[in-house]
Amino acid sequence: MNSIEFLLQQHARNHSARVATWEGTTATGQNQEDLILDGLTDAQLRKIPGAGLNSIAWLHWHIARSEDVGVSLCGGGRPQVWHAGGWAKKLKYERADSGTGMTAADVADLSARIDLAGLREYRWAVGRQTREIVTPMKPERFSAKIDMAVLRKNIELGSYRAAPDKARFEQTWSTRSVGYTLATYAVTHNIGHWGEVRTLKGML
């Protein structure tokens, strides 16, 4: 197994089986995302269990947006799923950033009004595009730097609302590789937040 195959394996593991299956997919056709969200009602998905916490709906949206924005930097030459598919209208939620720095009121607003069926579809669409971008890559592509032109476009599109210092932001990202970015936003960021979802689920 090479690095591309490993990344795709771990990506599948932490997405729905509607995106991809892997050797750990259950006999009933479920990956980690399916198992974690199984049985939750809409009310539970929208609920914020306590002060300073997020809802599961917010986390689901945040990891989807973060993957969409992050993977767009890796040279696939494709627009973010959010913009290409008109998902702001479909989800009835207009903010295009990934939620970093949101206030409690912002989190509550998203949690109350985002379209949950649309959110699931958006998350799956993001996962499928990630795989379409990564699958044809060669392992040596991981050492390349991210596409700074796309980073600048993402800033203009409002993908990083919490990044007002553009020069400093660009300098930070100019040191990051395609491999780092894919490993973070297509795999480890998902894993970390699905752990948070499990915790919240236990509080409902």
Poorly predicted runs of 5 or more residues? none
CATH superfamily: dinb family like domain
| Main sheet summary | none
| Category from helices, strands and their pairing | mainly alpha
Task: Characterise the protein shown here.
The structure is a single chain. The chain has 204 residues and is an all-alpha fold. The protein has a single domain, classed as dinb family like domain (Four Helix Bundle (Hemerythrin (Met), subunit A)). Helices cover 58% and strands 0% of the residues. It has eleven helices and no strands. It has helices spanning 3-13, 32-37, 42-46, 56-71, 81-84, 87-91, 104-113, 116-134, 148-156, 166-173, 178-203. Helix 4 packs parallel to helix 8 and helix 4 runs antiparallel to helix 11 (178-203). The longest helix is centred in the last third of the chain and has 26 residues, at 178-203. It is globular, with a radius of gyration of 17 Å.
